[in-house]
Specification:
Chain lengths: 111, 113
């Protein structure tokens, strides 16, 4: 069974640019959530989608947005990048039982 | 407010020692779930256990055991006879009916040979 796939794995952007990250969940999983992981802040919840609807979001500025498609694939977008956005962005999918299955993450570096 | 606190930033033990990772949570919800995840050096987080708020039974799985106490809002994780392969960052997490996961800041465990 294929796991959660995130693309790209690594990317480098400059301040002011925007970035789109993609996540393909495990087949059959309809919930997808996103997290930002940084050394100082740990894992912080960005948002969660279920059947194309955002059910909750974390405390991030509006520059962070996401969406989910009808096939459960999800994307997140960060506009007007800042140096502080450098982080590992993790996507996770889950069934109703709630346990998360994580991808390997997309490591974003903002210069 | 909902919060998960893992006060131990880093723990070092010698192989075969027992080690307990602490997790304290805060929530006003009566229905919630608690989780532990492991993030080895390779980076991918791995699910370890889920416990709902109505089930305070302790659980043992091999060398791993979990102690859930609602009275102290704690969900501690013990590794018995630690091994080098246990070296990782361990995260405790809380989720309520709002589908919002709250993670602790993690505890880095180093098991020395």
């Amino acid at each position: 069974k294929a796991g959660v796939t995130q693309t790209p794995r690594y990317l480098i952007k400059t301040r002011g640019q925007q970035v789109t990250l993609s996540c393909s969940p495990i087949s059959g999983h309809r919930s997808v959530s996103w997290y930002q992981q940084t050394p100082g802040q740990g894992l912080q919840f960005l948002f969660e989608y279920f059947s194309e609807t955002q059910r909750n979001k974390g405390n991030f500025p509006g520059r962070f947005s996401g969406r989910q498609f009808s096939n459960s694939r999800s994307e997140m977008n960060v506009s007007t990048l800042e140096l502080g956005d450098s982080a590992l962005y993790l996507c996770a999918s889950s069934l109703l039982t709630g346990e998360l299955f994580f991808g390997e993450g997309s490591r974003l570096t903002v210069l | 407010a909902q919060k998960v606190t893992q006060a131990q930033t880093e723990i070092s033990v010698v192989e075969k020692e027992d080690v307990t990772l602490d997790c304290v949570y805060e929530t006003r919800d009566t229905t919630y779930y608690l989780f532990w995840y492991k993030q080895p050096p390779s980076g991918e987080l791995v699910f370890l256990i889920r416990r709902n708020s109505f089930d305070e039974q302790n659980e043992i799985s091999g060398r791993y055991s979990w102690n859930f106490q609602k009275s102290t809002s704690s969900f501690n994780f013990t590794i018995t006879a630690s091994q080098v392969v246990d070296s990782a960052v361990y995260f405790c997490a809380l989720v309520t009916g709002t589908y919002k996961y709250i993670f602790g800041t993690g505890t880095r465990l180093k098991v020395l040979a």
